[in-house]
Amino acid sequence: MKLKFIEADTISHKAKATIHQTGKLGFSTDAVPYLDITENKSIRFAINEDDPNDDNLYGVIITEDAGSAFKIYKAGDYFYVNTKGLFDSLGIEYKQKRIIYDIIKIKIENDEIIKFIKREIIKKEKESEDLEQQ
């Protein structure tokens, strides 16, 4: 048996991304250094074609400007991606539910991939009514 010890300081338990009411995907302050996010980068998203029941997203951060990637924007200390069209096309109900993704790094075929693990929280009735009035 070969053991590989995991360094606690290399794991971020608080790296998250949340879909906002506008459809933008905002990154938590812990996700920014974990993913090495900066303004001059973009992100490519993927879905698991082998498993239609896999609600998670997958991604890679890239530095080159690619037409198939989503540009990362910065507003103050906050980083986000304009993903409304993506989430609408995937049928993700971000207006009726609060969608949060826990972020971890995984290896697929020797490539480091970001896995966005989906969590859904049903919005309270008052919160949903306020959204419908906007």
The percent of residues in helical segments reads 10-25%
Unreliable spans? none
Over all CA atoms, what is the radius of gyration? 16 Å
How do the strands of the widest beta sheet line up side by side?
1-2-6-5-3-4-8-7
Mean pLDDT: 88
Number of strands: 8
What count of helical segments does DSSP give?
3
Number of domains: 1
The first-to-last residue Cα distance is 59 Å
Query: Helix and strand string, N-terminal first?
Result: EEHEEEEHEEH
Shape, principal axes of CA atoms: globular
Portion in strands? 35-45%
Content-based structural category: alpha+beta
The largest sheet, given as strand count, sense and whether it forms a barrel, is: 8 strands, antiparallel, barrel
Structural description of this entry:
The chain is of the alpha+beta class. The protein has one domain. Helix content is 16%, strand content 40%. The protein is built from 3 helices and 8 strands, in the order E-E-H-E-E-E-E-H-E-E-H. Strand 7 (97-108) and strand 8 (111-122) form a beta hairpin. It is globular.
